[in-house]
Amino acid sequence: MASVIEETATTTAPFEPFLTASVGREGAWEIEDYLSRGGYTGWRRAVSELTPAEVTDWVKRSGLRGRGGAGFSTGTKWGFVPNIPGPKYVCCNADESEPGTFNNRAIMEWDPHIVVEGVMIASYAIGATHSFIYCRGEFGLAAERLIQAIRDAEKAGFLGTDIFGKGVDLQIEVFRGAGAYICGEETALLESLEGKRPMPRSRPPFPAVVGLYGRPTVINNAETLANVPFILKNGPEWYAAIGAAPNCGPKIYSLSGSVNRPGNYELPLGITLRELVEHGGGMREGRKLKAVIPGGSSAAILPATLSDGRDAMDLVLDFDACRAAGSMLGSGAVIVLDETVCMACAVTRFIEFYQHESCGKCTPCREGTIWMLKILERVTGTGGTDDDLFLVNDLASHIPGRSLCLLGDSAAAPVMSAMEHFRTDFDTHNATGHCPSGCIPF
Amino acid sequence: MIPNPPTPFPTREGGGNTEAYVLSDTTRAAIVALKGKYPKVQSAILDALRLAQDEIGYVPAEASAEVAALLGVSPHHVHSLATFYTMFFTQPVGTAIVEVCDNLSCALWGSRRIIARLEEALGIAVGETTPDGSITLLRTIECLAACGGAPALRVNTTYYEKMTEEKVVALVKELRPGKR
């Protein structure tokens, strides 16, 4: 998949993409190509010049925050791992399946070594000697490329025993999933890796203390780890200067929906939606913005006019601004919806997804998603009643915070936000029994 | 996705160690070799089920029982994983599985027209297999992570992006038996 990266004329500092620089270039996945670009410089520096604590400190100072959704400081997360003897693990979460997100697949297929090197550095920082990349089952090519990258790194002496003669041992294994969205949830991922049904665990204890096989474990998103080699290579200050603190570094925005050129756009954190849409060639057929989902289907839907009266096009796409606007940056999957899209139909499609992917462990999520789907299907099918809309909203409001993981919360967020901002779409369905716009072309 | 119909639990005692094996010697050896791959053997179940499915085309109850016997884990546990994950099929499917992404980003770019055209060209509905057993058509509930190339679909492990009605008709011709 070719991603489209353009000149960032609208941002203040000149920015050269580095995470997606090789996406779309034939042969970029070969180790010779990666080495010619200065690959494994960061790994060599970490092992030869720095202590594990110093590596963690560098990542902390770089301001890198988790790209998987929470936006938590990566260095701080590594710091939670207790310094005790015995096995520890790094698990790279490459089970990318949040609707609208497609940046992990791009970097793993085209430039797998940046992810592998990131896993190596994280492993050294926490003292892991055996680490895993949990690759989504559907990603056959990505898994193949990662496995080849690991083999080549072993041959080059970057993995194995006594790496660089410094007494560091490390092996990395690619673990392939088999089709379950829930495996992207970190504790479900651990269960899946342990060969159990992937159902989330109760926290505490957190994985940093009791994780894979009951041992301290760090779980980082593939995009997060892909940043790490560059921090080690160029220094934390260089990295922290990209974007606007405390939202440092570039983000690969996965732009999709009603724009002319959907694709991955690597830009410094802190650009506005307007800038991103311009990179994506503008709104499709010059239509007007109706709503935006800034962080994948789990994020609350924001209307074209934000609650503080601002135009949503002026929304700053970083962790804190999206949260302040009542949604979240999540995985950076920006789904743009234009004026022709019926929000009732859009939300029903999301709930179909969550109902299918709920693992069934916690009652509010398992039963809540299925009943929300049944009611919404009636509304968007032949038309429902006002009572249906009251009921689905009431149901949604009782799901968040009552399950072990956030899947149920993620299903409730789009329903409640759509009901709040786009009630007329639901009402029209009820009144006419038809979709007001026929937005999803049948 | 095809809903997994209830399948009987493996009934043979110990699973596959008494009668004829359902898996070839090569696959059996490959599964046994997985035992040392992870710190705990249970972690190898998904890899083993994948090997079994690669050989048979789906995972019948006898195959998951045999996987369990080879790895030395409970057959019921293996069966519970085979039925949880959507990429394992407990019923026979076509040799080519066409999965059309139908999540929102692809739907906005016309995935439903793609599905309708595929149904027409193949003469089957979503969830069905062509009578000759060559092609199974599915619509995904999950997102295929190819929204930049919407509408997208997958044939077995290969992604096809920016699909049009013309392109899918051409694809169907390619997938017909004798063409592959």
Which terms summarize this structure?
heterodimer, A: 442 residues, five-stranded mixed beta sheet, 17 helices, disordered N terminus, B: 180 residues, Arc Repressor Mutant, subunit A, Glutaredoxin
What do these coordinates show?
- The complex is a heterodimer of chains A (442) and B (180).
- Chain A has 442 residues and is α/β, with parallel strands linked by helices.
- Helix content of chain A is 41%, strand content 14%.
- Chain A has 17 helices and twelve strands.
- In chain A, strands 3-4-2-1-5 form a five-stranded mixed β-sheet.
- In chain A, strand 3 and strand 4 (168-176) form a beta hairpin.
- The longest helix of chain A is centred in the C-terminal third of the chain and has 19 residues, at 363-381.
- Chain B is an alpha+beta fold and 180 residues long.
- Chain B has seven helices and four strands.
- Chain B has a four-stranded mixed β-sheet with strand order 2-1-3-4, covered by helices on one side.
- In chain B, helix 2 (45-56) crosses helix 3, helix 3 (61-71) crosses helix 4 and helix 6 (111-122) packs parallel to helix 7 (165-175).
- Chain B is elongated, with a radius of gyration of 18 Å.
- Chain B starts with 24 loop residues before the first helix and ends in a 5-residue tail after the last helix.
- At the A-B interface, helix 5, strand 4, strand 8, strand 12 and helix 13 of A face helix 2, helix 5 and helix 6 of B.
